[in-house]
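Hi everyone, sorry if this is the wrong subforum. Our group has a chain we'd like a structural model of before ordering constructs, and none of us has done structure prediction before. Sequence below.
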Amino acid sequence: MPRTPPRVEVETVSDAHEGRLEYALWQVNRTLLKALDDELKPLCLTMAQYGTLNRLAVYGPMSAADLARDAGLRPQTVAQNVTALLKAGHLHRRRHPVHKRVLLIEPTEQGRRVWEDAERRVAAVEKRVHEALGERCHQEMCRDAWKIVDAFGGTPDEAAGERP
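Answer:
Right subforum, don't worry. Here is the predicted structure as tokens:
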């Protein structure tokens, strides 16, 4: 009687790809960025502009150089975001009270209102994530995500403060 060859599991490229954590995280990243872009679009804000406005609203006025350094971004990137936010009336510049040559950037009243609205919209996306995962899984996933960040040398964002 002829032997039956052992059953070999054939893994397709797609299966192998989808079983990798970095692929899953990439898809999560893309999904969340799209959801956040969709939420911010009615406010005429990009994610990068929201990040700049958020940093200034949370940490207070700072120079463009400090903003770039603290956020771990290139000065050119910050300049593009600041220029767009200045044109939209969300930011304004003023001279530093001590170092007169330094210009500080800070949100206008309009910018604060837009930031508050954006914060509500971003919180709604976070709420959807939380509901999809449940409390325990949400906490674990957040903790584990920071473990990955730490394993690769942490984040250049020095102003992020302590993590949970």
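For your construct planning: The first helix runs from residue 13 to 18. The chain has a mean pLDDT of 87.
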